[in-house]
Amino acid sequence: MTFRTFIPAIAASALVIAAAASARADGYRDTGVPMTVQEDLDLSRYLGTWYEIARFPNSFEEGCEGVTATYSAREDERISVVNRCRREGLDGPVEAAEGVARVRAPGKLEVNFVSWLSWLPLTWGDYWVLDVTEDYSVAVVGTPGGEQGWILARSPELGAEELDAAKSVLRSNGYDPEALEMVPQTKE
């Protein structure tokens, strides 16, 4: 990368970071409610593919269906992250975003999808595992500012009881589950 292309790239990245920071003010969570995380999270059991069942609306997943997240261990003790979504319906083209996650504290991870700027602290986003079922079949993930949150499952469908339990976790962490949008998924 030449100096001529480096400066516009930094400027564009600064705009993306500023937009992300301004989105934090419009969260889906009462930040006065303390958050709890799954402190005994077993990362080796968390690895693998998760289907996105529900999410709080966000700009980077707008129009995404059939969303999955696949986590795998790396030799440097970090975690590879590959998020996939289908555009234009469940039969539409697949888009993938590759990133990396690191553990900050038990149940608290940070993710980065801007590898060439990973040295900048502002390119890392919070990813807190609020709850995971005993059999690691359902997980609830959120962010301290409440700008994002997800209900994930190991299969593309989730029963009403499991969905209600996951929403209850969000509610107890200050989220408004009524703002969730269900994510269309393909059948296995």
Automatic annotation (TrEMBL):
It is found in: Cell outer membrane. Residues 1-25 form the signal peptide. Keywords: Cell outer membrane, Lipid-binding, Lipoprotein, Membrane, Signal. The keyword Membrane applies. It comes from the Bacteria. Its main location: membrane. InterPro entries: Calycin, Lipocalin_ApoD, Lipocalin_bac, Lipocalin_Blc-like_dom, Lipocalin_CS, Lipocln_cytosolic_FA-bd_dom. Homodimer. Involved in the storage or transport of lipids necessary for membrane maintenance under stressful conditions. Displays a binding preference for lysophospholipids. Belongs to the calycin superfamily. Lipocalin family. This is Outer membrane lipoprotein Blc.
